Amino acid sequence: MVGLVPYAGDVPHEIRPDDLVTMVREQIALAADPDKAPAMQAYMKSAMPYRGVTSQPLSRLCREVYSAWVLPDEESWHEALLALWDGAEFREERYAATTLAGHRLYREHREPWTLELWRHLVVTGAWWDHVDDVATHRVRELLERFPGAVTPTLREWAVEDDLWLRRTAIICQVGLGERLDRDLLTHAIDANLDGSTRTTPPESPYGREFFVRKAIGWALRDHCRTDPGWVGAFVAERGDRLSGLSRREALKHA
After folding, report:
1. 10-25 pLDDT tens trace
2. C-alpha–C-alpha distance, residues 67 and 52, integer Å
3. Residue numbers of the chain with a pLDDT score lower than 50
4. Which of 19, 29, 171, 249 is packed most tightly, with the most Cβ within 10 A?
């Protein structure tokens, strides 16, 4: 539906998935700043180009569209989300997809089986900006609401042959504080240890990947705010099996 503009009324209007996708892409194009786009693409080391829409205008755009136009059911939400993500020609369209993924109107659709959808975004996104948003918001939400159903899958992700699934398993509890599952975090970290010294093989196929080492440090640093004693003991027990980066990050605020 070319030319569709955001509805200005108080009550959201129902919309078809393809129309919502068209609207979002048109609004992003209208907000584009070509002068900013090259620097944004270079900073993110992105093969996909940018329109040049920075985070605040994009957030406002998405908020206005998604609050005014509602998808009628779970199938429509799923279809629109994947169309925005898989069909994206500009990176902002993928950011808009992850915003749609977490919109309050569709919370009831985010059930344990949605984890397969989040897996798709993580594996195909394959870079920290996409992965970290999905991990620390969407995956964490499912873990909080459905721990019994979701935890076994996250334990599997921690040993998957995919860097970004492993990172997700490590950082998905960032922000949980006292509700953090220590067993899950311990498993995710121990499955991805560095082995530290360069004269010995790493303990994990991904143990020396920067994004894994950084993730371990981030997860531990975050939990250190809640339980510094546990984190300190965890780091001490593993000693040189943790990379220097992971140790420094973990104890940054200890």
Report:
1. 667 999 999 999 999 9
2. 23
3. 1-4, 6
4. 171
* Whole-number pLDDT of residue 197: 65
Residues 68 and 180 in one domain: no
pLDDT tens-place string over residues 203-243: 899 999 999 999 999 999 999 999 999 999 999 999 989 99
Radius of gyration of the chain (CA): 20
Tell me the residue range of the domain where 238 lies. Answer: 114-254
138 secondary structure, DSSP code: I
User: What pTM did the predictor assign?
Assistant: 0.93
Q: Per the structure block, which two tokens stand in for 103? A: 């919109």
If one counts every other C-beta atom within 10 angstroms of the C-beta of residue 42, the result is: 10
Q: What is the CATH number of the domain that holds 130?
A: 1.25.10.90
Residues 121 and 97 in one domain: no
Are residues 127 and 97 located together in one domain of the fold?
no
Which residue pairs from 142-150 have beta carbons closer than 8 angstroms and sit at least 24 positions apart in sequence?
142/110, 142/111, 142/112, 142/114, 142/115, 142/118, 143/172, 143/173, 143/176, 143/181, 144/176, 144/179, 145/110, 146/111, 146/112, 147/181, 149/112, 150/112, 150/115
* pLDDT number for residue 202: 81
Question: What is the 3-state composition of the chain as percent helix, strand, coil, each rounded to the nearest 5?
Answer: 65, 0, 35
Query: Residue 3's pLDDT is what?
Result: 44
Same domain, 247 and 137: yes
The partner residues of 14 in beta bridges, in order of sequence, read 70
Q: Which of 64, 79, 109 delimits the end of a domain?
A: 109
User: Which of 109, 138, 165 is at the close of a domain?
Assistant: 109
Work out how many domains the chain is built from and give that number.
2
